Structures are given as structure tokens and as C-alpha cells.
Amino acid sequence: MNMKKLKRIILDNEEILIEKILKYAKERNYVKYTSTLKEAWRMSMSGLSESLIKAIEKNNSIPEMGPDDDFTKSEVAKFGVLEAQKHRSRGVTLGMFLGLMKYYQQVYIDIIDESNFLPKEKKHFSQYIKRYFDHIELGFTIEWAGLSGKQKLEELQKSNREMTNEKNKYLTVFESIYDPIILVGRNTNIENINYRAAEVFLNVVVPGTKYYGNVNIDGELSWINEEISKFVDSNKDEILQEKTIETKIGEKTFLVKFKKMLDVSEKYRGTVIIFNDITQRIEIERELKIKHEQLKYYAFTDCMTGVLNRRTGLMTLERELSLVCKGDRPLSVCFVDVDGLKKINDTYGHVEGDWVINFIVSNIELMVRKTDTVSRMGGDEFLIIFPDCCEEDAEKIIERICCRLKHHKKPFKCSFSYGIIEITKDSKFSVNDVIKASDEKMYKNKLSKNISRE
């Protein structure tokens, strides 16, 4: 008989074997005394399969039994002996172990029955499985019966102390976690909270609130019932949500994670709720955003006047020139130079000189269109870009600005000289060409008023 087929079907169907044993364990209620984690069942099934495959590799014949066999030394029964030592110390009864082992045996027979093996192969492989488990059960039973009542009691007491220490270790870890944690049972009742949760939500600073205290946790945390119900109704394994909560230590923003407990046995079908306090992170992100916006503002803006700086103004002009080349709309550009600024600075001081600049800029911004842009090219020089605007229309806007500059109460005149040029699709002007041409026109305008360019 080709035993490699049996070996292959065992190796290829580990996941199916696990699902089948879980199904039998749930149906017969063995899960109330077994692990809640699927990986623990995987380790158990893997250990059985590994032992079974070793037996197949060592001897293809069905491992029969005889009256003189020493099962304490049998390689096949060795797995049962080791399992007896482990399970006996955990308080598992002989009947409980042997009963569950019958269902472990059954899952291997099930995959054989469901295979496409020939009938004689199925019969042989199933008989091999039965005898293999007979050896395990005999080894388990002999080992189990080998201890006296006193030895069994001492073994159980030792195991109980170890489990108590293990439980206390995990309770200590649970209480030491900085994030608030709430454990909710299958009926949405709060079963436990850690130290941080008690401090944040109940203003209780003693660990073990649920274990040893009389605080009405369910009442204090009743606000969470609605959130738990939503999570349960969603039928999802995990949900993340951001929530701002008024706690005993002030308003806090949490990233709240609702997660189903990892329990394949379904005896602890509850929810773990973890509150990750992101209040400080949100505040830091808000401050960084403000600083980013400030940096962005200063990168593109002239700090004194609030209009675009030279670099951004030239970039805008370059973009507008490329648009003119692609279409039929005109573009007008006006170069502005404040009149007599040096004299105002020398006579009245730089504060007044700055006032003049800002007064002129504010009037320019007030009168230009929303589509127009204003940028500061230098100390008292500005560039106004008029998209989709002919020179004549730009001239009218500038004239209205000049009229507004007459209305102030300062002891000096506020005015500027300007030069406007119109660019069309056929102009073929570069950025430098536009600046040079408009600057020359501005200078002619200034000379016509007998004003020095200083």
C-alpha cells in the first residue's frame, strides 16, 4: 500500500483538520475547557500530524498490538505519554482527554473518507489511523495510571500555582498598559477595565477596579453602550474611529479600536476596546499645519505689503505668457514705481515711507480685478498683471487708482509712475522682455512728470 498518499493528504489538509476538530469540539461542548485561540488548536493538530507522519515513515505496516507490548517505550505511544503528563497537570480528566481524542481520530478518518482514494486504500488508511490512536490512548492511560493519588494532587497543586502566577502576570501587564482598555462580554456588559481606563473615565486611581472594587462601572461608562451596539451590529472584526470624549482628566481625543476577542471556541465572544489618546498628536499636527501655512505664505508673499513676492510674481508672469501663446486673449502688464519715496524717507522717516507703500498697494488691490495679480519687485517697484485685458482697459484701472491716491491727510504727495505694455499671441515676449519694456515705459512716464527715479 502506498502510504505516501496518506502522508500527503495529512500534510495538505491541516486547515481542514483544524476546522473539523473545532466543529466536533463545539458540538460536544469540549471547547468550554479548551483554548480560545486557533493557533493553540493548530499546534495541537500539528503535533498529532507530525507524530503520525513519523510513524508512517518508520513503518508502513498497521501498528498492531500484542499482550507483551510495553507501550511506555513505544515510539507511536510516546506522543500519548507526553500528552498525559501535560494534560493531567492541568486538571484534565482521563475521560475528557480520551473523549476528545476520539474526535481527533475522527477528523483524520473524515478526510480519508472524503478523498478520491480507492476503497481498499480508504479501508487500509482508516485502520492505520485507528491503530495509531489506540497506541496513543494506551500510552496516555498507562502514564496517567502510573501516579499515586498523592502525586497527582501535588502535581495539580503545582500546576495551579503556576497558572495563578501566569494569570497574575497577565493582569499586571493588563493594568500596566498606558492606553485605556475596556473588556466587554457577549451581552455588552463591561467585564473589566485596566488602571488607565479607571483613571481616565472613573477618576479611580487604584488598579483592579473591576476585580476588587465596588465602583459602578457600567453606570459610569454607560455612554459606550451605544458604540458597542453599533460595532456588534456591523458584524466586522475590527473598527477604528476617532472620538472626542469628556473624561475625568479633561476633554480628550482618542483613536478608538473595537476588536472582537480572538476566540474560536466562542465561549468568550466579547469585544476589546482600546483608547489611543491622540489629543497631543492632533494639537501638534494643528500647530504644524499652521506653521506650514505660514511658511507657504512667506514663500510666496511679500511680508510688508501682503502681495506676491518677486519670485512668485515672475512665475505668474511666465505662466500668463505661456497662456497668451496658446490662445487669442491679450495680456497687459504694468510696471509701477512709487514717486519720491527717497525724499519722503529722508524728510519724514521710513515709517512714513512704509505707510506710503502700503497705502498705494492697498488702493491697487482694491481697484484691480480678482483675476489680476500684484507683486512687489523691489523696494518701491511693483508689477501688476492683467490677464485677458487690453492696454486701454488696464490704463483705465490705473487711472482710477491714481485718483484714489489723492485722498489722504499726510503732508506729502502719494503717487506712482507706471508703464503698461500689451502682449498678444504674436508678441513673442520673454519674461525679461516684458519687464524691460514696461520698465522703460514707466521711466518715460516718470520723466514726463520731472521726477527723479531715486
Automatic annotation (TrEMBL):
It comes from Clostridium kluyveri (strain ATCC 8527 / DSM 555 / NBRC 12016 / NCIMB 10680 / K1). One of its GO terms (cellular component) is plasma membrane. GO terms for biological process: cell adhesion involved in single-species biofilm formation; negative regulation of bacterial-type flagellum-dependent cell motility. Pfam families: GGDEF (PF00990). Residues 329-454 form the GGDEF domain. It comes from the Bacteria. InterPro entries: Diguanylate_Cyclase, GGDEF_dom, Nucleotide_cyclase, Rev_trsase/Diguanyl_cyclase. One of its GO terms (molecular function) is diguanylate cyclase activity. This is GGDEF domain-containing protein.
